[in-house]
Amino acid sequence: MKNDPNYMSGAEIFFECLRRENVEYIFGYPGGAVLKIYEHLYDVDFLKHILVRHEQGAVHAAEGYAKASGKVGVVLVTSGPGATNTVTGIADAYMDSVPIVVFTGQVSSHLIGNDAFQEADIVGITRPITKHNFLVRDVKELASTIKKAFYIASTGRPGPVVVDLPKDVIASKCIFKYPEEVDVRGYKPTYKGNSNQIKKAAEIISKAKRPLLYVGGGVIMSGSSEELKIFARENKLPVTMTLQGLGAFPGTDPLSLGMLGMHGTYWANRAVDNCDVLVSLGARFDDRVTGKVETFCNKAYKIHVDIDPTAIDKNVIVDLPIVGDVKHVLAELAAEMINPPDTTEWLEQIEEWKNECPLDYEKNDGRLRSEFVIEKIFEKTKGDAVVVTDVGQHQMWTAQYYKYNHPRSNITSGGLGTMGFGLPASIGASFAVKDRPVVCISGDGGFQMNIQELITAVYNKLPLKIFILNNSFLGMVRQWQELFHQEKYSFTDLGNSNPDFVKVSQAFGIESYSTDNPNEVESLLDKAMSINDRPILIEFRVVKEDMVFPMIPSGASISDMMVKRLNPKRMI
Amino acid sequence: MKKHTISILVENHFGAFDRVATMFSGKGFNIRSISIGETEIEEISRMTVVTEGDDKIIDQIVKQLNRLIDTIKVVDLTGSPHIERELALIKVSVPKGSMEEIKNINDIFRGNIVDITGRSMTLEITGPPDKIDAAINLLSAFGIKEIARSGIVALKRGEQIKIKKEKNLTT
Fold first, then answer.
1. Would an 8 Å CB–CB cutoff place B75 in contact with chain A?
2. Which of A489, A495, A530, B19 is the most exposed place for a label (fewest CB within 10 A)?
């Protein structure tokens, strides 16, 4: 047996499996329990290991890579603190259905449960935030477990999978054989939708007077943006998108209404409120979309296409559920459509709403505003960049003002709302995307949450364009404090406690600039776009007290929408 | 809030029980009783969960259970013919002169006396949960010292649910 060329250690098997899964990059950080793997990694040439500076950064980078490329992101960390540092990233990937596989080291099998050095029950800890997880107890199960992990992460509704690797399992040997196929008895995703239901949906859409497509991240994940474009344009159907859905349909298309929900456009929300048929494609009726469920879209017949049966009737009871992959269902639905509905009047009505209350901000006082910077970034990149954001006001303004032309271009933390996501995720995206600029838009608060990853961007010479919209506040929290918490700006003013972002980035070796002058924005952006062999950082010092509008307060109805600040005197 | 009995076939994997329990607690669903045991197939266990909720909640519970990778088959037995049984061990005080009376109650419920001391008796009673409730109710007149209930196990009446054998892909 020992002479068999396939007689390998767990560490060797690990890499053989990754080779067969066509893994190009691992985002990782070494440590005691995974030393054996790193020992072999030294001689591996078919993939590149990207050293991050904190394990949370590794997971967000893998998410950014996965979202930009459509492939599975891979993370490798050690046991104990290495593993627990991945938890936020894993929870983030779970909420936004991002396919990643996280390999965690574990103490040797015989020590598990003994409170050994750097031991943590990561399988127990991550159980409610993973699609599935595994503890590999025998090297003979390693190859089939890795195969299953990649299969589960990337199929059906994608999600994170954790594989916990005890030190002795990695070190022990067996004959390696990679399974050709996977069979998981309890996991059989439904791809093809029920044909009768689809036929019925086509009939209802054909007869609709005010139909609306409500599109989520599922359209991008299933790779059905092309199908959606054709379906919407042929049938003249207006399209509104969730935060994760942005990019699924071109933002510049006249049929695009932009984002709906809490900070969605006025006209998208009015359309949701007044449509007679709502077709949800790969979206989950999240509370940031619906507000008060009882009043959400309550005049419409609702059709819900989703690959995950649990998404159906979870938040909003629908009239016609179709469980299946959007790509399959859309193809069949398009074929079943006999007559396109007459939507001329409906589109005119939406146009009226658009003119009634367009996205707007103060342009004439000479002060620099986030919305202006984002508009300029859109103009410079023509909507073709991959734009990664952090979480907060800048994220919502980006969703409103950056009109994504392509799927897999909008990378943002939606469900979990993880501050600190932006920078590492944009690093991961930079490895996946070579032909388009990758832009990271962050805030002064969130940027500091994973600021250590600047060095990862520098070391790898990533042509990343990092833009900090610094309003010296935790702006979104401040907004809620002003609107709902008696203007008690409790611990959100960072004005006196922010670092000098230019000096910080210079210390990391990044060329950086700062401005608060609207007239300098274009030239600085031109400079950023012209650099292609290293990162650049620009800090835009924007107005402190701006708020994101429109806004439907949490749990409220569309009739409660605020379109502008009610009391302008609050401007400081 | 209607009571539902849900039968779940799960892979006999490390942590499978915990996945089911974690799903219930994480999503805020109630568990009234839960039991797990082996089945006729070596690598499969059967869990029986008694839960409660309106139609929307039960629909979510069944879907969320199905969504777990380690669950093979989830059936809400409520509303279709099925058998439910529970076992209870009831340790009851025996006041002077009441031994015969307790034995009579035990006979009526077709229980077994499994332990006896001068002052107490332990009865083993099996049956549908309401029968056990009735027995406990009657015995409480004598003073109940301790109770252990197994939780409900249940099976559908009639035909058997066929389970496909998983291909063995381990190296």
1. no
2. A530
Give the residue numbers of A annotated as catalytic, written as ranges: 55, 117-118, 167, 476
pLDDT at A570 (0 to 100): 47
Of B14, B15, B169, which has the smallest distance from its Cβ to A183's Cβ?
B169
Q: Which of A321, A356, A391 is the last residue of a domain?
A: A356
- Does residue A395 share a domain with residue A340? no
Encoded tokens for A558: 């569309």
Q: Using one digit for the tens of pLDDT, what is the confidence trace for A487-527?
A: 999 999 999 999 999 999 999 999 999 999 999 999 999 99
| Closest listed residue to residue A32, CA positions, set A134, A171, A167 | A167
Q: Residue A237 pLDDT > 90, yes or no?
A: yes
Contacts of A128 in chain B (CB under 8 A): 22-23, 26
Q: From residue A272, how far is each of A261, A277, A415 by CA, in Å?
A: 9, 9, 21
Q: Which of A99, A101, A120, A98 is nearest to A111 (CA)?
A: A120
The domain B2-80 is placed in CATH, from the list 3.40.50.1240, 3.30.70.260, 3.90.1150.10, 1.10.230.10, at 3.30.70.260
Q: Do the chains contact at A127 and B19, CB–CB below 8 Å?
A: yes
Comparing CB atoms, the residue among A127, A143, A186 nearest residue B18 is A127
- Do the Cβ atoms of A328 and A191 come closer than 8 Å? yes
pLDDT (0 to 100) of residue B159: 74
Task: Find which of A310, A314, A316 to mutate to test the B interface (most B CBs within 10 Å of its CB).
Answer: A310
Query: What's the CATH number for B83-153?
Result: 3.30.70.1150
B164 CB near a chain A CB, below 8 Å? Answer: yes
pLDDT over threshold 80, residue A93: yes
Note the pLDDT tens digit of each residue in A314-330: 999 999 999 999 999 99
For chain A, the maximum distance between any two Cα atoms, rounded to a whole number of angstroms, is 82
Report yes or no: B42 at the A interface, CB cutoff 8 Å. Answer: no
Look at residue A135 and tell me if it is in a domain: yes
Q: Does the CB of B162 have a partner CB in chain A at under 8 Å?
A: no
- Supply the DSSP string of A520-545, one letter for each residue: GHHHHHHHHHH--SS-EEEEEE--SS
Rounded to the nearest angstrom, the minimum Cα separation between B86 and chain A is: 28
CATH number at residue A53: 3.40.50.970
Residue A159's alpha-carbon distances to A227, A358, A431, in angstroms, are 24, 36, 20
Mean pLDDT estimate for chain A: 96
Total residues found in chain B within this entry: 171
| Cα separation, A469 vs A447, whole angstroms | 10
DSSP code of residue A118: T
Q: Is the peptide bond before A250 cis (omega within 30 degrees of 0)?
A: no
For residue B171, what pLDDT is reported?
36
Tell me the pLDDT band of B167, cut-offs 50, 70 and 90: low
Does residue B165 carry a pLDDT above 80? no
Looking at residue A569, what is its pLDDT?
46
pLDDT of residue A422: 98
Residue A282 has pLDDT above 70, yes or no: yes
Confidence of residue A565 (pLDDT cuts 50, 70, 90): confident
